[in-house]
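> @MW can you paste both from yesterday?
MW: sure, first one:
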Amino acid sequence: MPNSDNQQLNKEKGKAVHKYKEAEDAVNKLDIKSMLLNTGDNGQINKKNADKKWASKSVKDLEEAPEGGIQVEVPAQSVLNENHSGKFSGRLNNRKSLGEPSVNRKKLKEDLKKSKVLDHENLDNAPNEIIIQNGPQQAEVPVNVEEVKDNQPIENEIQEEAQMERFKDISFDNEAINTLLTSDELVPLKGTRELADVRRSIEAIQAVYTNELPPIKLDKKGKLDTEYEKKAQEEMDGLCIMVTMLYKRLIDSTNNVLAKHGADYKDACQILKVLSGYTQKESESFREKLLEYRKLAISDKTLAGKKTTIRDIVSFNRGEFYDLDNDENITYSIKGAAASTIYMISKKVPKTKANPKGVEIVYFREKDFVPAKDNIKMLSDVFAKHELTEQTRTKLKEILSEVLDKRNQRVDISDAISKYRDKGLKADKFAKAMEKEIKKATGKSIKFDAGEYEAVKLALIDYSGAYAKRNMANKLNNSAKIGFERNLSDRNVATSRLATLLGIQSMICDSRTATIRLNGKVLQGNLMEDAGGKCTLIDSPGYSMKAISQLFELQIFDYICGQTDRHFGNFNGIVKNGRIDQIRCFDNDMAFGNLRQKDLKGKFYNRIIPVRKEGILGLPTSFINRLMALDRPYFEQVLGDILNKEELDAMEERLNYVKQKVLQLAKKDKNVKWDDKKKQISFSNELANEELRQLYSIRYFADLAANKGLGIEKVSKFSPVAIFRSDIDDMIRNRKRRIQ
């Protein structure tokens, strides 16, 4: 029980902070970095006297705080301000908000150190305000759990547990759907003859994907067998004619649907327009690309020895080829290092108004794969890329293969590598530091030769990346469930293609399959577009209505893709006229795994936000109707060359779940109408106004976060410094009046 002195202290100053260790844990582990501001009787902050009074108290005073302890609350999340024109701005005011400091962090840090409650320097992310309320309930603090950064990936078990702890008490979807309808019951025009022709045309194209091209034969001298190649060319001509005819059939069948139903089913037919455009382009270039691939394979021993299928040619046809060895119009430079090597390719093109310099710049990254399941194989694959001595390679494989089987050791070693990499240590200091870290974590000694310091540094950084990549793709409980040794780069391409099919391509950085020839070798990978913009998590202006719509679309789109790594460091905002006006997403490789609906149902899964009615209400009507019209044959035709059947099955399941949440919303809300004949949704009364629907949805996410002491960025893709909860109700009332 507290003594009389402490009782008097509590009466004068409100509730004291809890015991030293718990206060330190709260500072270290929560997003809330400070809870030592004095409060009055009403629980509100008395900033004027807080610094001076608390600085004089000893650790003993703090340790003798009452058993009831303290309850830490984050102020209700702010929301967007609305100016007189009805546009949203991010003007920061002096109201309570999350994520933007409103106290002097330097002064606060000094006072905390004086009070001996905090003896470290890590207060860079101190919050703006903390309310300390009287009451018996303590703040829920995960013990010994590493804080999850909102702009960084979840790479290990400790971070994953912290993320799960954060959401353990949130019941996000208490109306989950257990039985999924088939696409026949959901897709518009499914019973029409015209759409049946489209489906049959796609099935016919898919059926020839496994057809093989004639193999490449060499004579006894290792040169091309020209007589055989002439016969092979005749056979390939026949394949080209067959594929071109199948493409024409698909184009004709989609055009028939557009001609007959385009006026009444605009959103559904928009998908078919995109599909028809893809097909027309592929049909025109198929023969040329087949011959180009054949010529390339003849010159490359690795490709020459592989079987080539129609699927391979389709994928090559959809991508780009750059001959860095022989094309005089192309130059390149290398960015990055080790496994993250990026080739910046510059190609001379005709000058236009849009491109007055006449230079096209693209970024190429070689194919990237999920590391092997077996530890020894993973380590062998990693170290084979680096010029290590055989003794060092063997010793590292021996030590690290055991480390990978022990949780604390594998996390400690990986963290140490990341720490020294981020500090920019030179190779010699890096290698010596890692000798000590390995000894400390495992008890085993290893000494690196001076001549291999650079190789050791790159090899260990590569190992750390492979460890994190394997965790994120498959090993963690909340991983993307992408198969071991499956291609990761192609998932960037799949994300870009699906976004184009759904009409949101401006939001996803364009990515295409690509092949380059460099130093006589053929490298396959993908092209990446520069995102532009900046991270929206820190110092963000307000959002335009366009950007708000895109963020709601992104949340649902990532769910369908099974994108587990959409943290704030993987998408940017482009500012126009003082507001974020365009969202740009990149680094889309942790997607399209075998992630089933049972894994996701009704909970936060890694970075995936559960589907709930409020998230659907925030979507533009046209986007909802395009989702409802998206059918398996359409996305299989666009993605089937880079994703396998299991991955497409899982995506179809996630898509159908979203569709049925739309139907569930229509059944429960009288202002939401589902036309069962046309398979289209519409909104009535006040929900007919898209901006008002989005305000309601933003308020829901803000309140969900605030009720759990979280920031809105934890439960949505909205930035806490651009969203002001305190204004939202007034904005809704103003919008209603404007509608009336």
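MW: second:
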Amino acid sequence: MGHVFSPNRMGSLISGRRHQAVQPREPLQRAGIEVGQRILDLGCGAGQHLPVYLSLDMGIKFTCNRF
């Protein structure tokens, strides 16, 4: 079995430096996501980019369910 990331270290996934390195708009544009499509992101981590996605003016609706 591969490496399993400990949930106790989730805070290390949320940082300003990491946010600057991964621009949230870019993956959406590269994936060709269009208005009306439904996308499921499994294993999306701590949801660091969700607030940014929610604020983007791209005509895309984002929903977050935490289990």
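> thanks! The first helix runs from residue 16 to 21.
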